[in-house]
Amino acid sequence: MKRRNFIKQICNTCVASTLPISLLTIQSCSDSESSDGPDSEGSVDNLDLDLSESKYSSLKNIGGAVALGSNNFDLAGLLVYRRSESSYVAFSRRCPHAGTSINSFSNGIASCPSHGARFDTNGSAVSGPTNADLKKYMCSVNGTILTITK
């Protein structure tokens, strides 16, 4: 067998044997992106928080904020901010640039620990490598129950 034919046959065999694994890997990456993407955050359409619970005590004051971890409503977690006596706002903690979980609001700014992007209490990017806003959710209050809705 000539050297050129031997090398060609070996290359073809290598490609043929690794192609199925490569396709499975590419498919699994695509599947995980689609299930974790911003449009399919979780399996529920609303989330109720009982503001009388101590873990939400920072929301008793106007300007107070809390960062929630991953949940069925939003897999990245939530940032909740109290704007006024009866108005709250909630955002996904998923950074639109890097996908990292954004830190809680401090002095009206939430920042990404990965690259320093900063977001105001409207969810708007104010500095950093992104100009995309945080994903915002609707909030309503009934007594001590804050309902966050997609």
Q: Could you walk me through the main structural features you see in this protein, from its secondary elements to its overall organization?
A:
This protein has 150 residues and is α+β, with helices and mostly antiparallel strands. It folds into 2 domains: 1-36; 46-149, Rieske [2Fe-2S] iron-sulphur domain (Rieske Iron-sulfur Protein), CATH 2.102.10. 23% of the residues lie in helices and 27% in strands. It has 1 helix and 9 strands, in the order αβββββββββ. A hairpin with a 5-residue loop joins strand 3 (78-82) and strand 4 (88-92). The chain is elongated, with a radius of gyration of 23 Å.
Main traits of this protein?
2 domains, 27% strand, 150 residues, elongated, single chain, six-stranded antiparallel beta sheet, Rieske Iron-sulfur Protein, alpha+beta, three-stranded antiparallel beta sheet, 9 strands
Which helices and strands occur, and which strands form pairs?
Layout: H1 3-36, E1 46-50, E2 65-68, E3 78-82, E4 88-92, E5 109-111, E6 118-120, E7 125-127, E8 136-142, E9 145-149
Antiparallel strand pairs: 1-9, 2-3, 3-4, 4-8, 5-6, 6-7, 8-9
